[in-house]
Amino acid sequence: MTETSTQADMTVVVTGASGRSGRRVAEAARAAGLTVRAASRATGFDWRDRSTWADVLRGADAAYLAHPTDVGAPDAAGAVGALAREAAGLGVRRLVLLSARGEEQARPTEEALGEAGVDWTVVRAAWFAQNFSEGPLVEELRERGELVFPAGAVGEPFVDLRDVADVVVSALTSGERYAGQVLEVSGPRLLTFGEAVAGIAKETGRALTYRPVTPQEYGENLAGFGVPEEEVAFLVELFGSLLDGRNARLSDGVREVLGRAPRDFGDFVREEAASGTWVPDPSGRG
Ligand SMILES: NC(=O)c1ccc[n+]([C@@H]2O[C@H](COP(=O)([O-])OP(=O)(O)OC[C@H]3O[C@@H](n4cnc5c(N)ncnc54)[C@H](OP(=O)(O)O)[C@@H]3O)[C@@H](O)[C@H]2O)c1
Question: Global pTM?
Answer without folding.
Answer: 0.96
